[in-house]
Amino acid sequence: MKNGKLAYLVLCAMLVACVSRNGKHHAGTALRPANGGKTYGGTFRLNMVRGSPNALDPIKIVSKVGDDLALQIFDRLITFDSTLQVKGELARSWDISPDGRTYTFHLRTNVRFHDDPCFPGGRGRLLTAKDFVYSFTRCCDPTSGSLTYWAFKERVVGVDRYHAERATNPAAALPEGFQAPDDSTFIVRLVEPQAPFLLVLANGLGCPVPREAIEHYGKDIFRHPVGTGPFRLTKWEEDRVIVLDRNAGYWQTDEHGNRLPYLDRIEVSFIKDDNVQFSAFRQGDLDENFTIPTEVFPVLVEPGTGKLQGRFAQFQLQRIPALCTWFVDFQCTKAPFDDRRVRRALALSVDRHRIVRYVLQGSPWGPANHGITPPVLPDYPIDDIPGVGFDPEAARRELAAAGYPNGQGFPAIEMTIYPEPRLKQTAEALQQMWKEHLGVNIGIRMLNFAQFLEQTESGTLPMWGTRWYGDYPDPETFLGLYNGALLPADPTAPSYPNSVRYDDAEVTSLIKRAMMEPAADLRHDLYRQAERKLTQDAPSIMLFYEMHYRLLQPWVRGYALDPMARNVLKHAYFVGAS
User: Fold this and answer.
1) Half-sphere exposure (CA, 13 Å, Cβ side) for 387?
2) Of 517, 559, 521, the residue nearest 192 (C-alpha)
3) 455: which strand partners?
4) Angle at Cα 220 formed by Cα 216 and Cα 224, nearest 5°?
5) What is the dihedral of CA 195, 196, 198, 202, to 10 degrees?
6) Contact between 292 and 71 (Cβ < 8 Å)
7) CA distances, 185 to each of 96, 127, 134, 137, 259 (Å)
8) Which of 198, 80, 90, 206 is CA-nearest to residue 563?
9) Whole-angstrom Cα distance, residue 58 to residue 558?
10) β-bridge mates for residue 549, sequence order
11) CB half-sphere exposure, 472, CA atoms < 13 A
12) What gap in Å lies between CA 193 and CA 51, rounded to an integer?
């Protein structure tokens, strides 16, 4: 412990001595003036510690890394503003029928796909409503490798029939629920009213992809995204660099008439060590730092105020409670975690406060003392959702009742994680707690992020540590992880988002009733009932709720941070000379 403290003090001294020594940014080319005091030009450099995305095809993106990049490449039918209110993007407006079953979207008529070899002459064509019919249908096509069918399953007219028939019949009739009566009108018809449906559409599901790109690139489409967004992919070297260049023909302008985006380029690196990432940021080699190393957090941020202190005050600090929860998942259909008592035993032996205080070292994250939904949604209080607390005696009783007294006979099991420093530190703390309180030895296995995603969805992992960023500001984005209605008919098929394969009839029924309930207070009460039940069943061990902290260089402007931590860079620009 003394050696650890000494190393920590040495690291702190080095950081203070080396703050932003270069004091410059990488604008690349000279900045060009724009209306309203904005500027054009520059290369925005950011790093993603979790590594390359699993895909840049909207129907296969299931990671925060992929979603952040997709936000630059693709536009959505509708989207969220910085306060998480729904607003139009490719849809300029929409109407909802009185019975809540028909959504009619009126599309913009001046939007073009990126220039790409998939089009005749390489010139991107105009977007039409048929592109939405094609793209949304592709979400429901079992032969496409889609991981987004869950969003439309049992919701949209005809998609379940299409999904079943398409598996064996390439000529299956298209879903009746997606229609394009003309080039600028897209209609979605629901089986029953769905209160959160607009929120669901506002995540990455609403990204149109041209048929030409799918046919041109085939199975390689995941590495050749063609969208309508402000940037286009020009380089991808796995786990090394991704480069996005400005889409000069982007349709959107700002309030001053400037055509977006302002930046010339985005360069993404994949440094897996958050200390190395922080070092690159403080020397001016990165324009943002999203993951602050836990061991240096107390040196950076003044206790009690949340403000940067000392020489670090030259940077910009953004902070906001996150729509994000960290947890350990169990594969609920396989022994020993098909036994509720085993899951509860491991959950009851976790001291969350100890992890937050000693492992996260003062980072302002809260222990997850309630359910999976973090305390971020203003109309969804979680105080009446009791979590599984720290009770080692009760944990030992549960484990003994399951047939493993003092851990005797418990099988050799590994908890799988991906490269994320805080996740590794937390996994090691959990490993120690389970050994100390239960006599159970749990190993730790590290996979790269793409392998991790593949194996969690396939059901091959017994347990794994992860986090979940909400896709939209509604409890269903978290409760959907445990919705039995989203399980595949084939138990050997990939299961997303219910990767734990939890199937409880009461919870599933409550979620379904909530989604159909138009009154927010009644809907949220149903969600809380479902959350209370599943939390006590412990298909996951809730660990902590995240607080987002993002550092920006002093020359960055127009880069907002919201609870979903969406990296929307089309409004970002630089100030000052390069």
Assistant:
1) 26
2) 517
3) none
4) 75
5) 180
6) no
7) 13, 11, 14, 16, 25
8) 80
9) 26
10) 319
11) 24
12) 39
CA angle 74, 78, 79 (to 5 degrees): 75
Q: Which amino acid is at 109?
A: T
Q: Which two tokens stand for residue 289?
A: 């730092």
Residue among 435, 403, 353 nearest 444 (CA)? 435
Tokens of 514: 């909530």
DSSP 470-514: -SSSSTHHHHGGG-GGGS-SSTTS---S-TT----HHHHHHHHHH
Gap between the Cα atoms of 150 and 485, Å rounded: 9
Backbone angles phi and psi of 17, in degrees to 5: -75, -20
As a whole number of Å, the CA-based R_g of the chain is 24
Tokens of 550: 């993002």
**Domains and their CATH numbers in the chain:** 1-73+229-287+553-578 (3.40.190.10), 75-222 (3.90.76.10), 321-547 (3.10.105.10)
Contact yes or no for 512/485 (Cβ under 8 A): yes
- How does DSSP classify residue 555? T
User: What are the 10-residue block averages of pLDDT along the chain, 578 residues in total?
Assistant: 39 41 54 97 94 91 90 97 92 97 98 98 98 98 94 96 96 98 99 94 90 97 97 96 98 98 98 93 96 85 85 94 96 98 99 89 81 93 94 98 98 94 92 98 93 91 96 95 94 91 98 94 96 97 93 97 92 83
Dig out the tokens for 380 from the structure: 């969804």
Q: What is the DSSP string of 8-39?
A: HHHHHHHHHHTTTSS------SPPEE-GGG-E
The number of C-alpha atoms within 13 Å of 516 and in the hemisphere containing its C-beta is 11
